[in-house]
């Protein structure tokens, strides 16, 4: 009979981290979400070698109080949830208190952070879950987190990372989505010392779309603004002629969170029925605002999938929102051709 024992902390930390941190892009996602939750209006993401060697996220958010700075790296340490009831209505992007602990378990981490109320900021260094250094430091308001050498202590994971360029593209794709979901935030991505994009943060989705996907894409978008079943659907959806070969240009954000959702994708496609060639796919960037208790984000550690309390209500809201945008466009085109 094999003996049962509780795993040592460094092993259980690595196992838990594995659920949240799969590649550099997962780190970037978690860190930008923290910056957004901290109320940042300017976020800069720098990566080198696809983020495998180096990631740095700088924000002008609220910062962390000196006495909390080391605590932030403990597993299940969070300022966003206090009791079980809070889990029913999550209004922040983070809530599990796992990201910083997971990142610190599998990489070398340095953080500089300062709140508005403090004269000096705090510097924290932590590697493989081991706290190395905590001291006062002069730094601007907000937080800067630097991550080096992801999976330096998990060779099995390191082996599964792809080439720098592939990992870098995965990072860029996450930063794209986050920038699109928060056009009020100015997001800058720097890849190997070159600025990849820089959104203006003027609160206009079209500006972010133009910056990230370019002029042709932006010019082929139709405005969406619709409300049904207490769900508000806003954003942009492509003209029927602007069809794509696959679903990669369909983006959905639920209450400010980038979400993978089949329901919304199918609903949007249905909205084009009769207007788009079969076998082609629409492009869209749609934001759904719904009561926090109507969507469960606590489904997966990476928080990319969600569960809707009323799936049909969500489907209908997206379907009718897209359908009416496409129909309005059709009417406009017919009027123009008639003149
Ligand atoms: P969660 O986001 O789920 O709360 P994290 O491990 O990502 O858990 O972060 C732990 C805590 O550290 C957060 O709840 C927040 O209080 C603080 N924190 C993390 N990143 C930042 C940041 N960029 N600015 C301010 N506070 C932060
Ligand atoms: Mg977080």
What does this structure look like?
It is a single chain. With 339 residues, the chain is of the alpha+beta class. The protein folds into two domains: 9-198, Heat Shock Protein 90; 220-338, Ribosomal Protein S5, domain 2 (2-Layer Sandwich), CATH 3.30.230. The chain has helices spanning 9-20, 24-37, 99-106, 155-160, 164-181, 205-213, 215-219, 262-271, 311-338, and strands spanning 42-48, 54-59, 108-114, 121-127, 130-137, 142-148, 186-191, 194-198, 221-228, 231-238, 250-254, 257-258, 284-289, 295-296, 307-308. The strands form three sheets. Strands 5-4-3-6-2-1-7-8 form an eight-stranded mixed sheet. It has a five-stranded mixed sheet with strand order 9-10-13-11-12, with helices on both faces. β7 (186-191) and β8 (194-198) form a beta hairpin. The chain is globular and about 75 Å long. Bound molecules: adenosine-5'-diphosphate and magnesium ion (MG). Adenosine-5'-diphosphate binds next to α2 and α3. Adenosine-5'-diphosphate (ADP) binds at residues 30, 34-35, 38, 59, 61-64, 72, 77-80, 94-101, 143. GO terms for molecular function: ATP binding; ATP hydrolysis activity; ATP-dependent DNA damage sensor activity; endonuclease activity; mismatched DNA binding. Residues 209-327 form the DNA mismatch repair protein S5 domain. One of its GO terms (biological process) is mismatch repair. This is DNA mismatch repair protein MutL.
């Amino acid at each position: 009979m094999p003996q049962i024992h509780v795993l040592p902390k460094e092993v259980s930390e690595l196992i838990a981290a594995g659920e949240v941190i799969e590649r550099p892009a997962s780190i970037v996602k978690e860190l930008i979400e923290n910056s957004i939750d901290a109320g940042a209006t300017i976020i800069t993401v720098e990566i080198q070698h696809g983020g495998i060697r180096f990631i740095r996220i700088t924000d002008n958010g609220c910062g962390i109080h000196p006495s909390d700075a080391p605590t932030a790296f403990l597993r299940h340490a969070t300022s966003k949830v206090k009791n079980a009831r809070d889990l029913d209505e999550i209004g922040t992007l983070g809530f599990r208190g796992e990201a910083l602990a997971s990142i610190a378990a599998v990489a070398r981490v340095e953080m500089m952070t300062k709140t508005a109320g403090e004269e000096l900021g705090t510097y924290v260094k932590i590697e493989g879950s081991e706290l190395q250094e905590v001291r006062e430091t002069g730094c601007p308001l907000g937080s800067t987190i630097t991550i080096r050498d992801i999976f330096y202590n998990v060779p099995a994971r390191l082996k599964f990372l792809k080439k720098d360029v592939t990992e870098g593209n995965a990072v860029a794709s996450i930063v794209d989505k986050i920038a699109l979901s928060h056009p009020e935030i100015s997001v800058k991505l720097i890849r190997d010392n070159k600025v990849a994009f820089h959104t203006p943060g003027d609160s206009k989705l079209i500006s972010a779309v133009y910056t990230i996907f370019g002029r042709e894409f932006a010019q082929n978008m139709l405005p969406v603004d619709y409300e049904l079943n207490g769900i508000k659907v806003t954003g942009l959806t492509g003209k029927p002629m602007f069809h794509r070969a696959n679903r990669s240009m369909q983006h959905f954000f639920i209450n400010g969170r980038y979400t993978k959702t089949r329901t919304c994708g199918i609903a949007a496609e249905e909205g084009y029925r009769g207007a788009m060639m079969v076998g082609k796919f629409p492009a869209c960037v749609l934001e759904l605002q719904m009561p926090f208790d109507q969507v469960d984000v606590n489904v997966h550690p990476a928080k990319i999938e969600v569960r809707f309390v009323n799936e049909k209500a969500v489907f209908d809201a997206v379907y009718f929102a897209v359908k009416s945008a496409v129909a309005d466009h059709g009417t406009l085109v017919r009027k123009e051709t008639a003149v």
